[in-house]
Amino acid sequence: MVYRVVKSLLILIINNFYRIKVRNGHRVPLKDPLIIVSNHTNAFLDSLSMSIVLKQNMFSLPRGNVFLNSSKVLKWLFTGIGMIPIYRKLEGAENLKRNDETFERCFKIMKDKGTIHIYPEAICIYERKLKSIKKGAARILLGAEERNDYSLNSKVIVCGLIYEEAAQFNTNLLFNFSKPFSLRESIDIYKENNVLGINHLTKKIGEKMLPNIVHVENKQLVNLVRNIELIYRSELAIRNRMDPKNQSHQFFLSKHIANAINYFNSNDIEQLNGLAERIGKYLKTLKRASFLDKDIHHSLGLNHILKGIFLTLLLPFCLWGLINNFLILIISKVVADKVVKRIEFRGSVLFLSGMCSVLLLYPLQMIFFYLYFDSIVYLAIYMLLLPITSRLAFLFSREYVSWFNMFKGYIMKLLRLSEFKNLQKERTALIEELDLMVIGYRKRHLK
Predict the structure, then answer these.
(1) Contacts of 110 (CB under 8 A, 6+ apart)
(2) Is residue 24 packed enough to be buried (19+ CB in 10 Å), middle (13-18) or exposed (0-12)?
(3) Do residues 408 and 434 share a domain?
(4) pLDDT tens digit string along 252-285?
(5) For 34, phi and psi rounded to 5 degrees?
(6) What is the CATH number of the domain that holds 121?
(7) For 310-332, b where at least 16 C-beta lie within 10 A, e where not — what string?
(8) Which listed residue, of 13, 130, 180, 296, carries a Cα 20 to 30 Å from 159's Cα?
(9) 82/60 Cα distance (integer angstroms)
(10) What pTM, to 2 d.p., does this model score?
């Protein structure tokens, strides 16, 4: 009961926090014992988001200090929504023995054909990189099979959590599910030697995770990958007949860019350094001239004019939604700014403070509205429009910013035509160089 109530609330709020897309959700088994392994970049919001895209109930394994530092009421709530603590040395060596109970609970869940969500990297870091895979998932899977004479037919599925900006509200989030894979080979090894079997499955999980995330090998290359995405991803989409706004296509293009950069970093560092220097100069020139990259290759057309008319007609409803949520947005930002010390927790704190603010302020707003107008009819209309206009405001806020920036960029072109033309030439040359590097990468990589 607790799980259903909380999940219903999360569906409503998280879908307003992120623009969620699920890729290959049909691959998730519903009737087999299942462990879902995923990367971990956004604290507890990763698991909460995962729970709303799955049809079945899900158990998760948060770190033990979530329970150790909580009241009895919160522990009851956490248990009700399927959280099972896993203890690390950081929570104290004396608590490590409590993991035996955690594993026993997981074995029972698997026997009952349940679903468990695990972060095999065992650490939350805000970066686009696959980290060292720990053995917990393999121990649970193979241990449960051993307890049940290897008859459970357990499955593992990888889900890459692909955030556009995990720490920012109203950004994209892609759930990228792999095909489920069986444990048969690992089980055969495990029967002969438990340690080798666990190691084999752990390695296999890492190998399966890598294709489902964007992996940048070197931290120093992260900004370069982002800059290339900014300049080149939409161009690459057109060349490959993809939709630049489609989240699945964005993932494939970002992964292709990251793989190419990883390759050049290992095989042609001089060319890569030269590219990084030229892109850096272009972006600095762009910033000094007060242009955005979109301004350089987008022009004002009929579709933009029609979009402006549509947004203008929608503006009163979006403004009403913004007004009703303005205080909630301010509270969330203030709380996050004061509380968050690590970027990995900013998105989760924004979400949690926003959710609490909604639960507190929406009822108060309705009470004040009724006291002011003294009309049940007006209150009913207000209650009906509140979620609708709020949703519209969340959905289209980025569109208003994008359209305004586009219009501003068009005016800037007229005022600074010579600077614009120079930047356009720089960008064209940069795109041509990137095209040549892509061709070179594909030829060399396919050999």
Answers:
(1) 33, 35, 116, 140, 141, 144, 152, 154
(2) middle
(3) no
(4) 999 999 999 999 999 889 999 999 999 999 999 9
(5) -140, 135
(6) 3.40.1130.10
(7) ebeebeebbebbbebbeebeebb
(8) 13
(9) 6
(10) 0.88
